[in-house]
Specification:
The structure is a homodimer of 198-residue chains. By secondary structure, chain A is mainly alpha-helical. The N terminus of chain A is likely disordered.
Chain lengths: 198, 198
DNA sequence: CTGTTTATCTTGACGATGTCAACATATTTT
DNA sequence: AAAATATGTTGACATCGTCAAGATAAACAG
């Protein structure tokens, strides 16, 4: 109902508009180049307008990271649920695939979620989401190797997924590798490593 | 022989001093906070002095990344050589350990080497070092699984190491995990995954 | 040894940034 | 309707990277 207003002094939905503008900017330019002023510019407001909605640029980014975490956890949960009739190993593989698909499809959010740009400690919501994601994974791993080895096992899985995601996002993977095939192959080997004894 | 000079107009070793100041700054403050002016300040010169030695801040960082790569490749090579009488798997594990030790002991260099802060494409030397590191790893993996599977295998190892290194450096590992034990456990599982069939 | 050229460093400037304070305008509450 | 509050705008400040112009020392030519 507010799409055709010329230029109302009050935007009305500025908070949401800023988040949208930020996400749009984040797909078009590198993270470091996204400034508060740039976001304000894209939203069509003055450079200081965001102050009333986000105390700082980090705060805005933290909000994007938080919503990213929500979708992330949901994606992993969904992937596992869709395989609930399969073996624990199949469920874990589905989660790993979902992990990498999320990273590829939400590059900016992923970078904010796992980068140092937003300081996790500042937002209890963020740390909670982070821990939730971890224990989600740990549960899936425990179904395969038992609770005893779940800690180190989930670290293995997480490291692999995170590392691969980072290599992809920062385009540092060897160019001759097909991501799809690589994902299948690597997830298979990771699970084999999990299931090995010792 | 030049440590006690008062304030010679010409520094004499400014290029080296700037690199040293940058590395010092990088261990004391987050990467994004390290500015050219801060580096100049630490070196005791004016804010524009670095211009004559490094065209840009990125250029200075690129140099640090390049020297980091040299030490990195040497560390991996050395670790493998020291195990030359052991099995290929033992050699690869030694390399993985060396990888993570390097990351932990050269946080700033590692971040610059594998982050987006310095654009690899700009320096042929950097890309060469990067490729060298990869093929170094690929060779070690090929000794275990054959050349056929070496590509995907080395991606597995690299992803795990890189991911774990990143989690450590950005302090996003679950707090209750002992890094040393984790490294041993994860490298063992990774190699088991490599050796699994299919 | 003297004069000139060259490399290095300083100073001052520009536009851009994040953030704050002061002011303007709209919405909500009283 | 008036007052209080929320949400914009404008202007300022310090800091940043970078450039251009001047200052100073070193290297070099004769």
């Amino acid at each position: 109902m507010a799409e055709d207003d010329k230029k109302p002094y009050h935007h009305g939905e500025l908070r949401a508009a800023l988040l949208a503008a930020a996400e749009a900017a984040l797909v078009e330019m590198p993270l470091e180049a996204v400034s508060l002023r740039e976001i304000a510019r894209r939203a069509g407001v003055s450079h200081a307008a965001p102050k009333h909605h986000f105390s700082t640029l980090g705060g805005l980014f933290a909000e994007i990271a938080a919503s990213g975490f929500e979708r992330f956890v949901a994606a992993l949960d969904g992937a596992a649920d869709r395989q609930s009739d399969q073996s624990p190993a199949a469920r874990l593989r589905a989660m790993a695939r979902a992990y990498l698909r999320f990273a590829a499809g939400n590059r900016a959010a992923y970078a904010l979620m796992f980068g140092k740009r937003v300081e996790m400690e500042r937002s209890p919501q963020l740390t909670a989401a982070h821990i939730a994601a971890w224990s989600q994974l740990e549960t899936a791993v425990a179904a395969i190797v038992g609770r005893e080895r779940a800690v180190n096992g989930s670290l293995l899985v997480w490291s692999c997924c995170h590392g691969m995601a980072m290599l992809m996002l920062e385009s540092q993977m060897p160019p001759h590798i097909d991501p799809q095939i690589a994902i299948e192959s690597v997830t298979r080997m990771v699970i084999a490593g999990l299931q090995s004894d010792t």
